[in-house]
Amino acid sequence: MQKTYRTRCKDSIMAYLEDNQENSFSAYDVHEYLQNQDIQVNLTTIYRNLDKLMESGILMKHKTAEDESCKYQYVKPHGNCQDHIHMKCRKCGKIFHLECSFMKEISMHLQKEHKFTLECSGSILVGLCEQCS
Amino acid sequence: MQKTYRTRCKDSIMAYLEDNQENSFSAYDVHEYLQNQDIQVNLTTIYRNLDKLMESGILMKHKTAEDESCKYQYVKPHGNCQDHIHMKCRKCGKIFHLECSFMKEISMHLQKEHKFTLECSGSILVGLCEQCS
DNA sequence: TTGCGTGCAAAGGTTTTGCATGGCA
DNA sequence: TGCCATGCAAAACCTTTGCACGCAA
Predict the structure, then answer these.
(1) Buried b or exposed e, range A59-91, using 16+ CB within 10 angstroms
(2) What would the pLDDT profile of B64-89 be if each residue is shown by its tens digit?
(3) Which B residues in the span 68-97 are in contact with A, Cβ-Cβ below 8 Å?
(4) Is the CB atom of residue B5 positioned under 7 angstroms from any atom of strand C?
(5) Which nucleotide shows the minimum CA-to-C1' distance to residue B4?
(6) Which of A40, A64, A132, B36 stands 20 to 30 A from A3 (CA)?
(7) SS3 for B122?
């Protein structure tokens, strides 16, 4: 296990996450947001921190053919995001969790009828959320 | 409607598609494949042709967070790929079509229970296909 | 002859890497 | 003091664009 230090940069990025728990964002979005608050954090540093947060399961990373850059999204601490797939709104970019019993049905159907072993990580359904449709 | 010419480059790319109807590939893959056959086609030209093929519905384009580049996949001429979502094997990259009655169930469930209007274009389920699992 | 298609070079955008310096514990 | 974290510059990639020339019809 590696030691980690608490730094100004990390705190700033975590503050961003705090304010954007519901939204998807790119590294650039974080950079811009912090700059608007006169908080200078190098874009490289943001990439490095977001990647670490992803590795430790605090963020998930996703990307679709229309996206020009990778998007990150906060993951609820106790919502096990390996257990369900996600829905992404094409308009606002928000991620929704398909946490319901139907999830199991999908998984079983794919296995039985299509011999396909679903992996939730990376699986994204695109569409429009209630507010955007 | 725009005129189109039949050219050596287009033919070469179509020949690649012919041989790879089942696989996902990047522009670079096509380029490499043709070079190995001593067929010189500029990478730019490949991008331009693949994009046109996509616009005319012959190819679909997809990308996940793990992909470093956009992938293209041949679409069956009469299989309407707007009607169903796709499954992608994480190992071999192949795309499978979820063409069955269950597709409607998924769509309806998302609408009714989650107020989410599914759009098949861009929606990709990731996992392992029969051969790779 | 017309104008679509192609090659080449260059630019654009995102993400990564190397290296020296900064700063937490 | 040790070593993780950061900033900066540069590079690595993928993809797009501009422009002149090639070539199908």
Answers:
(1) bbbbbbbebeebbbbbbeeeeebeebbbbbbbe
(2) 888 889 999 888 776 678 889 999 88
(3) 70, 85, 87, 89-90, 96
(4) yes
(5) C4
(6) A40
(7) strand
Looking only at the bridges linking them, the beta strands covering A59-62 and A86-89 are: unpaired
The string of pLDDT tens digits covering residues B17-37 is 999 988 889 999 999 999 999
Provide the residue type at B116 as one letter.
Answer: F
Shortest CA gap B122–chain A (Å): 6
Instruction: Dump pLDDT digits (tens) for A52-94.
Output: 999 998 998 988 888 889 999 988 766 678 889 999 888 887 8
Q: Which strands form A24-25's sheet, in the order they lie side by side?
A: A24-25, A71-74, A59-62
Q: Are B116 and A87 in contact (CB under 8 A)?
A: yes
pTM beyond 0.90, yes or no: no
State the CB neighbour count (10 A cutoff) for residue A113. 12
| Strand C bases with any atom < 7 A from protein Cβ | 3-10, 13-18, 23-25
State the Cα torsion B57-B125-B112-A22 to the nearest 10°.
-110
Which of residues 57-116 of A have CB within 7 Å of strand C? 68-70
